[in-house]
């Protein structure tokens, strides 16, 4: 097993750039959890990756499960065959809803000692759909600070041997996904209702993000300090990058009198929002004032028609009570 | 020393490899016999308020939000897969339907039905035995409630395919508020009188408010909560660690400029209406109850405050960014 891992996972620059949606990761995790809970066997799960291919850039958007032709041999790991008919029909079905998604590869959930011979057999079965499918591996038990996802590109070596070269990937950060993930990460256990104000929630989100930024800055600072004190070797590349980062700040010098366009636009945006807040306050006050006027009117009317048809509006004894209150009322204005 | 660490790590991995199923993951189990017996006994027929809660999985929520967002300003719809657990409807997954989004359609077209049946059939073949427990659609920009057509559709669904739940997502308000705007509903059977107006107040555009008002007593909301597995939890934490960059860099004032402008003009229309309404009835002291419901001015004020609060929050993040990145000075 050890030899297969060293030959199978050589890192290097791949020929494609990969970006993936967090939905892909959640799908794979859910598939794994479901199988684990429902069948109480720790088998690997396999499925297909769907994405958009634009030249040399692949964007993974969605996944679905493979149907394995022979489930009983899956546990012995001798060979795993995929039901290709199911796969092609499922792909057609997907095309109806998402016409821009293509078959881009397959995924597996395995630990560090993964078996590349099974993966090679997958490759040969799937090569008809896509000449260079990608492999995505989720590590369910790995201990690390990073996402336990590894992406591999398949290289056919000398016509028969198949190599898997690990490539790096980026995460796509679309606004709706970010909010969805944030929501689930924080609100899962409690019920949706909370008594905190909207403002404090917003500030908490910003605070968390800034805290992470601050931690990373601290790391950089420690690094530079260590170099200065001679504890670490100089790495000129890194130092150059840090220097360029420092030189980029401030990003826009708003005090510079030659460059006032940003300042003007920013001020306009601020005054727009301030105007909106002011209008909202005015509207709220008008509404409160209107309520007050209504109540005053009721009381005032009651006072004038004290012996009259208070009952016709259904107030009855309540009206008489109000009349007594009304007698005191004008006195408070004096 | 290194040997100790290695042994420790191996021990840790071994204990984790045992992979006990934690309580959080139990919810993913599906026992078909239990489900079948629930379907046979049908306790919801006696009590129209039987289902009280709706639990949505992390994956389903993410898919709902992304599908709704991908529709832009068009409504999208799809089906929900899951199971029943006592008074809870549990939604484990969702899938999109290939239908055009228009408000005037009552039922999905023929191809949508075919798609739905093929999907559920094949889902069972890949160890995915959940049933269809509901449908969802999006209301981009106008809040989570059921329109007249939606109420009719849901009443039909509850008649023929119960247990069924209707979920509504608003992707525009999700982004503008920074929180997922979602609601789960079940309709009452015809003729049933609701005890109270249960729908939580939310600003609704003027052109839809009639539709909302007419039907709001015919359905009730379910309490929504979310769940995730232990593996999901770890992955989500890692994902969050990567997302802090985009949290700082997004600017909702810019991305939602259209929506905010729309809200402002809507409030302006509501205020005009309120003005004419007040002009008519200012000399008649209305009974207490009616005044609360008809007070358009108070409602317009609430809507206005909500929009202003959201805009101020986005401005706050802009100011934070400006302070962090623009007002940095270096001592040479």
3D structure, described in words:
Chain A has 334 residues and is an alpha/beta fold. Chain A is built from nine helices and nine strands. In chain A, strands 1-8-7-6-5-3-4-2-9 form a nine-stranded mixed sheet. Chain A is extended and about 100 Å long. Chain B starts with a helix and ends in a 6-residue tail after the last helix. Chain B has 332 residues and is α/β, with parallel strands linked by helices. In chain B, helix 11 runs antiparallel to helix 13. Helix content of chain B is 53%, strand content 15%. The relative contact order of chain B is 0.10. At the A-B interface, helix 2, helix 3, helix 5, helix 6 and helix 8 of A face helix 1, helix 4, strand 3, helix 5 and helix 7 of B.
Which key features would you list for this structure?
heterodimer, A: about 325 residues, alpha/beta, Cytidine Deaminase, domain 2, nine-stranded mixed beta sheet, 9 helices, 9 strands, extended, disordered N terminus, disordered C terminus, B: about 325 residues, 2 domains, seven-stranded mixed β-barrel, 13 helices, globular
Quick summary of this structure?
The complex is a heterodimer of chains A (about 325) and B (about 325). Chain A is an alpha/beta fold. Chain A is built from nine helices and nine strands.
């Amino acid at each position: 097993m050890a030899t297969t891992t060293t030959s199978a996972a050589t890192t290097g620059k791949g020929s494609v750039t990969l970006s993936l949606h967090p939905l892909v990761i959640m799908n794979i995790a859910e598939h794994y959890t479901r199988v684990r809970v429902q069948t109480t066997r720790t088998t690997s799960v396999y499925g297909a990756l769907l994405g958009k291919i634009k030249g040399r850039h692949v964007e993974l958007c969605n996944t679905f499960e493979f149907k394995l032709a022979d489930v009983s041999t899956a546990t012995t790991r001798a060979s795993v065959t995929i039901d290709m008919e199911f796969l092609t029909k499922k792909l057609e079905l997907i095309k109806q809803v998402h016409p821009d998604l293509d078959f881009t590869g397959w995924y597996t959930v395995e630990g560090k000692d993964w078996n590349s011979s099974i993966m090679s057999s997958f490759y040969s079965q799937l090569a008809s759909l896509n000449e260079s499918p990608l492999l995505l591996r989720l590590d369910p038990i790995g201990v690390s600070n990073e996402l336990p996802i590894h992406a591999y590109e398949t290289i056919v070596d000398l016509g028969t041997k198949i190599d898997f070269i690990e490539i790096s990937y980026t995460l796509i950060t679309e606004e709706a996904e970010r909010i969805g993930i944030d929501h689930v990460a924080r609100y899962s256990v409690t019920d949706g209702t909370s008594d905190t104000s909207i403002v404090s929630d917003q500030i908490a989100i910003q605070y968390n993000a800034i805290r992470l930024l601050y931690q990373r800055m601290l790391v950089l600072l420690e690094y530079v300090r260590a170099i200065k004190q001679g504890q670490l070797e100089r790495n000129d590349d890194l130092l150059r990058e840090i220097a360029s980062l420092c030189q980029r700040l401030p990003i826009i010098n708003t005090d510079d009198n030659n460059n006032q366009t940003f300042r003007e636009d920013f001020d306009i945006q601020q005054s727009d929002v301030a105007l909106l807040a002011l209008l909202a306050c005015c509207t709220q006050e008008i509404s409160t004032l209107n309520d007050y006027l209504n109540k005053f009117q009721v009381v005032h009317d009651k006072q004038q028609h004290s012996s009259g048809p208070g009952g016709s509006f259904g107030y009855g004894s309540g009206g008489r009570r109000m009349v007594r209150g009304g007698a005191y009322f004008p006195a408070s204005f004096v | 020393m290194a040997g100790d660490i290695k042994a420790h790590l191996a021990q840790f991995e071994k204990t984790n490899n045992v992979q006990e199923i934690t309580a959080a993951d139990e919810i993913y189990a599906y026992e078909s016999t239990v489900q079948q017996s629930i379907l046979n006994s049908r306790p919801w027929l006696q009590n129209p308020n039987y289902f009280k809660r709706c639990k949505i999985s992390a994956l389903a929520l993410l898919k709902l939000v992304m599908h709704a967002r991908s529709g832009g300003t068009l409504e999208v719809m799809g089906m929900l897969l899951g199971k029943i657990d006592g008074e809870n409807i549990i939604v484990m997954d969702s899938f999109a339907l290939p239908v055009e989004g228009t408000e005037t359609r009552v039922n999905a077209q023929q191809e949508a039905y075919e798609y739905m049946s093929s999907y559920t059939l094949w889902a069972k073949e890949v160890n995915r035995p959940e049933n269809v427990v509901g449908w969802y659609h999006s209301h981009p920009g106008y809040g989570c409630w059921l329109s007249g057509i939606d109420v009719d559709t849901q009443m039909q669904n509850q008649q023929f395919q119960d247990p069924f739940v209707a979920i509504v997502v608003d992707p525009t308000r999700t982004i503008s508020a920074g929180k997922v705007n979602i609601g789960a509903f079940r309709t009452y059977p015809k003729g049933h009188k609701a005890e109270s107006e249960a729908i939580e107040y939310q600003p609704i555009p003027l052109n839809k408010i009639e539709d909302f008002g007419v039907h709001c007593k015919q359905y009730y909301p379910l309490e929504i909560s979310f769940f995730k597995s232990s593996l999901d939890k770890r992955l989500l934490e890692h994902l969050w660690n990567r997302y802090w960059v985009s949290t700082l860099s997004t600017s909702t004032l810019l991305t939602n400029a259209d929506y905010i402008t729309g809200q402002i003009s809507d409030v302006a229309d509501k205020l005009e209406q309120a003005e004419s309404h007040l002009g008519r009835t200012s000399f008649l002291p209305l009974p207490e109850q009616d005044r609360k419901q008809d007070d358009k001015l108070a409602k317009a004020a609430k809507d206005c405050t909500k929009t202003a609060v959201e805009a101020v929050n986005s401005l706050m993040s802009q100011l934070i960014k400006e302070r962090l990145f623009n007002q940095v000075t270096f001592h040479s």
